[in-house]
Amino acid sequence: MLTYWLLNLQFLTAAVLVLLVSLLARRAPSGRAVGGAAVITLVLTASFDNVLVGTGIVAYDVALTSRWTIGVAPIEDFAYAFGAIVLLPALWAMLGGPRASVYTPPEEGEA
Q: SS3 of 74, please?
């Protein structure tokens, strides 16, 4: 039986792989920007998911969830927000978006 965690695992695995490629290419996203975006994304996700689940617009099969919730939204519902927080900045940095930081080691003799 495919639970919500098994479904999320596929998406999150792909996001982490893109992040690893980004880090190996030395094109890491800015930690401060990712942190700020993470806070905003998670607050908005918590707010809107609770409205959607609480009003019955979206429903989850309880047998397929972990039964852990934030408000009335199952914690599994936050996996896509975490995936976006990992995937999108890594893609942005890898593809050379504006302000993408590229690590270059200092030349010998430079401080």
A: strand
pLDDT score recorded for residue 23: 83
Q: pTM for this one?
A: 0.71
Phi, psi (deg, nearest 5) at residue 100: -70, 125
Q: What is the pLDDT of residue 34?
A: 82
pLDDT for res 43:
94
Distance CA 38, CA 44 (A): 10
- Measured CA distances, 84 to 31, 33, 35, 66 (Å): 15, 13, 12, 21
Cα(14)–Cα(106) distance, rounded to whole angstroms? 32
Identify any residues that bridge with 74 across adjacent strands, giving them in sequence order: 69
Q: Are 39 and 47 in contact (CB under 8 A)?
A: no
Cα separation, 38 vs 25, in Å, equals: 23
Chain centre distance of CA 10: 13
